[in-house]
Design a protein that fits this description.
The protein is mainly α and about 230 residues long. The chain is built from eleven helices and three strands, in the order H-H-E-H-H-E-H-H-E-H-H-H-H-H. Helix 5 packs across helix 6.
């Protein structure tokens, strides 16, 4: 019995440390920090959360943050220069505005419209950039600050608007590089590479239509299943 307990103790230690080819304890894996990586280009739904999972690291974040480790609560206690944002290019509100005009004859109810907007939000490509530079970008491209005429113009030509926003982010990255440091330069390089990849995606004239049509199909399909 004593030998059995010793073996169990050694096994538990090996699992915790990951030694001798043993699997790392799944709880330990879950408690690791999950951070967005500079320059990651993915659909918004596939981006990792810029959050803190480890309960020990979450002490002092408040009951809600400790309970579910949400990105918003954790980020409030993270220095701004360390935060990373998944930036929609172009701003998702312009795409949603275009969608409402595109599907105006579909007679969508509020539930369907909300579903489509969520699908667009989740399936648009995003690029991870530093939080402060994202804030600077949104001062230039902020749909809620546009006049109705500006919003109409920007949402009617999404390819042009996306390219304008990409140019703004590139300029922000030039300034970011000037702040110095190898880390800044590497981050800016990765972001510019991802922006180049996104420009290639935008060469498809149906790029945005495909996203919106897929969103409509998904939400209409969901409605048919419920019947």
């Amino acid at each position: 019995e004593k030998e059995c307990k010793e073996r169990e103790k050694k096994r538990a230690t090996a699992q915790k440390s990951g030694k001798d080819g043993a699997k790392v304890n799944s709880r330990t894996e879950k408690n690791k920090k999950i951070k967005r990586k500079c320059g990651d280009k993915k659909k918004y739904k596939d981006q990792s959360a810029d959050t803190i999972k480890n309960k020990n690291e979450s002490k002092g974040l408040g009951a809600k943050a400790q309970k579910n480790g949400t990105a918003r609560n954790a980020r409030e206690h993270e220095p701004k220069h360390k935060r990373r944002d998944a930036d929609h290019l172009p701003s998702k509100e312009y795409v949603k505005e275009n969608m409402r005009k595109k599907f105006k004859d579909e007679k969508l109810n509020d539930t369907e419209l909300s579903c489509i907007e969520t699908q667009i939000d989740n399936n648009l490509q995003t690029v991870v950039i530093p939080h402060i530079e994202h804030q600077s970008k949104t001062k230039v491209h902020q749909p809620k600050d546009d006049t109705p005429e500006m919003k109409k113009a920007k949402s009617s030509d999404l390819h042009k608007t996306a390219k304008e926003e990409i140019d703004t982010v590139k300029k922000e990255m030039d300034e970011y590089e000037k702040k110095g440091g190898k880390k800044n330069k590497r981050c800016a390089k990765l972001i510019k590479e991802s922006l180049g990849d996104l420009l290639k995606d935008l060469e498809d004239p149906e790029y945005f239509n495909k996203i919106m049509d897929a969103a409509l199909e998904h939400c209409k399909k969901g409605k048919r299943k419920k019947r």
